[in-house]
Amino acid sequence: MTKTKVRMEVVEEISRRLVLDPSADQAIKVDTGGPDRPSWREAMVMHLFNLLDIVCRNPSSHNDFGKNIKQVLVDILESTNVPSLDKIRVVEYLTGFVDVYTDLQGFLEEHATEEPLINESLVEKVFREIDKRYLEGSKNIYEYEENPFHVLARRWSGNPSGPEVEKIQGAAERGLVDKPLWISMWWKSYDSILNPSDEATRSRLFICMPVEKLIEITNQCSGVLDDSLKSTKTRIETMLDGPKREQLTTIRPLEDTLIKSLISKKLMPQSWADTVPREH
Asked: Which residue of 76, 124, 153, 211 sits 20 to 30 Å from the alpha carbon of 85, by its own alpha carbon?
């Protein structure tokens, strides 16, 4: 058995466990303890792309493993047991929205000319599931996702008046009062933009968690912020009452969003970037 085949079997086994019901003994568990904690699921995704990189370096193995790789990806994207964050990361890598290995990009482009690894139907299903779970459903995103901000920011089309904005904010607010860790994480995000930061980062943050709503939620709790974040909160409250208020409330339209990138690649319908509600 070749080394490549062994690694393929390892990835298939990890993927099999990934899509199991979380209560199953062999299931890989998601860690919702915060974005800075190691993620078994993210490690699995990176392992998959390490394998793809090896396959790219051995052209003769493309035909042998291309179908296996595609099935692994389809299983991940279609499973109702896989968190939305991990599905989004798979989509980001496969569509080139985030940097990937040069050889891997060549592999993806080669297969795109034959039979695409993913298609519009599969990608749209990922985003519809996010809506069903968090934007239109009642699930507490902090109990299911390792990085709720990333999920919600990627769900934004980039239009400040998009019909999804209010629902994104509702998902970010739901249950937050009972999650002191995540209240602190949101404040850390605001602390980071007090220093020079790009408009895209600021707009994504303002879309997901308006600062005045974060203040309101924080004031319902006690002892959730350390001294440093208390100082950040005080500084921001002062800014809101003065001429710098606009710096914390202005949301600018973005063109470099995942949804708009997918639309340009014909992997999402144009309706996902419209400023009027979509028909389901």
From this structure: 211
pLDDT for 4-51, tens place per residue? 666 667 667 767 777 777 777 766 666 655 554 445 555 656 666 665
Tokens of residue 111, six digits:
């297969």
Q: Residue 193: which residues within 8 A CB-CB, separation 6 or more? A: 201, 202, 205
Q: How many helices (H) and strands (E) does the chain have?
A: 13, 0
106 and 197 in a single domain? The answer is no
Tell me: do 157 and 186 sit in the same domain. yes
Q: Distances from the Cα of 120 to the Cαs of 97, 104, 212, 250, in angstroms?
A: 15, 21, 37, 33
Q: What's the domain count of the chain?
A: 2
Q: What is the pLDDT of residues 211-260, one digit of tens each?
A: 999 999 999 998 999 999 999 999 999 999 999 899 899 899 999 999 99
Q: Which two tokens stand for residue 148?
A: 């709720």
